[in-house]
Amino acid sequence: MDEWIEAHFTRTAFRLEVLPQYTVPSDADNVADYLSGRAGPTWAQGGPWFDHLAAERASGKRRYRVRIVAEPTPYIRYECEWGYVYTTAAGEEVYVLDPGEAVIPAHPLVDHDWWLLDDRHVLDMTYDSAGQFVGARPLEESEAGPYIACRDAVLAAARPFAEYWRDHPELRRAATAGDP
User: Fold this and answer.
1) Least crowded by CB within 10 Å, which of 65, 69, 98, 175?
2) What's 113's DSSP letter?
3) Residue 115 DSSP SS3
4) Is the pTM of this model over 0.90?
């Protein structure tokens, strides 16, 4: 999947994230560290990925996403605090769509995850009920229209991550009662 994205991402890469949790091996240790109360990451720990994002931005590429936060699960809090804080500093644009603050557009494509690259290449993603990645299916370029419309609708309803994070200090691990 990563190779397909890199091959088709020449200008823009948009991702819609809808699940309350993703159970992926690459995240497992970090999520466990977050939930156990360990100290957060530093730029140096995520350096190669953050440097990659910064290089994309410097080359004129735009990587952006809308994260739907129907419920601020521990995983979503981890994603915000240990992920988006750093990826946005590196140049990724992250937007949050919280149904408590805005209406989620009534669009059939808001029910699952997908990528839209360069406004023409769609990678439709499938996860199981536990948030484990099952697979991804590239669609024909002629099928991109509804994905473009959905992207535009969720972006119009979402807020920039920095604003959302500023306005929700209660989501930070240190401020959440009952967390380590």
Assistant:
1) 175
2) -
3) strand
4) yes
CA 72 – CA 152 distance, rounded (Å): 23
Read off the pLDDT of residues 147-157 as tens digits, 9 standing for 90 and up: 999 999 999 99
Strand extents, DSSP E, the chain: 12-17, 62-68, 93-97, 114-117, 121-127, 133-138, 159-160
Q: What is the spatial distance between Cα 151 and Cα 4, in angstroms, rounded to a whole number?
A: 20
Give the Cβ contact number of residue 91 at 10 Å.
Answer: 18
Q: Are 16 and 104 in contact (CB under 8 A)?
A: no
Angle at Cα 56 formed by Cα 24 and Cα 63, nearest 5°? 55
Distance CA 84, CA 78 (A): 9
